[in-house]
Description:
By secondary structure, the chain is α+β, with helices and mostly antiparallel strands.
Amino acid sequence: MYDTKKFDDYLKKLFEEKEYPSLAICIRGPEGIIFEKGYGYCDMEKSRPANVNTIYGIASMSKSMTTLACAILETEGKLSFSDPVIKYFPQFSIPGTPKESVTLRHLAMHTAGIPPIPPLEWSIAMNTSERSTETSRKLRESAPNKMSTIEDIIDYIANSGAYEPLGAPGECMSYSNDAYAMLSYVVDQAAGMPLEEFLKERIFKPLGMTRSVLDLDGKEAIALANGNIADLFDLDDNENLYTDQIWSILPPYRGCACVKSTAIDITKYYQMLSQNGKFEGKQIIDSKAVEILIGREFPETRYPFYCFGLNKRLKNGKVICEHSGGLHGVSTYGGLIMGGYSMTALCNQGDVTTEPFIWACYNLILGLPLDASHAFAIPSGKKFSMPKAVVGTYISREAVPSYCIVTTDEDGNLFANYYDENLVLYYCEETLFSARTVDDPDVQRTTMRFLIRNGKAWGVRCYTRVFQKINE
């Protein structure tokens, strides 16, 4: 039914073009494993070939596991996504926002009103002492404390005065690792056990995910791996590739980014979700919990919509739910197609994209050309009617402050300097643009959706993060 030889040849060529150290791919369907293969090597010496049982970090793909834990607890009457955050953290507040109006639902959907702020990057820099880069040194200099407890994060959100909220809860989506840090500790309280133990007993063990663990420093993952674990590759300050086994340690962000797993195990997890909680004929998770996670409450359109830890969208009439992940030495992507299909692509180099690989997996199942795009921002060939309304400088404070500087020329064409990269903005629809590199207009760097009020943009959502406009 599937031409896996052609698929393998396509992935092999793509992998060679990308020059990544290693990649593990797995696809499951109702009939079982459709494709599984590792490409490249886990180490710089090329002595350990990668395979689908190699343990990788999965970074932010961890998030849906945390919200699934919350959904399970909701079906058991132990919490509700409608609970106010102050039920679990009485000291929590967002400046200018009634403290009882922020709920767990807002945290799970990144709509609490928290913009990109630096505590996660501070936490990594302050707690991963072995790592020394220019960025980490700058972060250590600016950090007010070690950001090693959830109380440190909540205090910063409530009392730092260092950011402007994005609006009322539910008004604006902006990806927030801090929100998922809080959800990790909500699970602890509602379940009466640590999130780590809950995931192990309620999700990993029942699914047979024997090579999956939530741990902070990688020690448990290394013990599980029995030698089959990917080294972490990244670029140093001089853009040279290096490798280490120094996992990012970010103590309060446990369920946000700290699961380590394999391509085989992750596809078990996603296939279970794609079958409403069933795996290999057994009901692993209550179907009501899966419905809470990604169900009918959330729209089905070609635009990605963030549910509870997964983006949901339509392609060729099929519902796809997915998430990517990235940290030092980690670039991952995984997803599911409702009806029994799951796929994942795990890579051990930081700050690269595995998107083309996972798109090829979707395309194999959907019967599309393997190189078919899943981009939702499609240039229209038209010009935006209010270019001057979006011109300005926008800031993200997620780490060392980053900027998106938007300019226009006399013909109304729009340009952006984004993370010091020069981009051309191609108008798509509404206030949505595809931001593409100047040298290669076929390469999309990000999407930009401008948030306009009273004739002027106050922010721009660069893919999922809102950069706020600086008043000039």
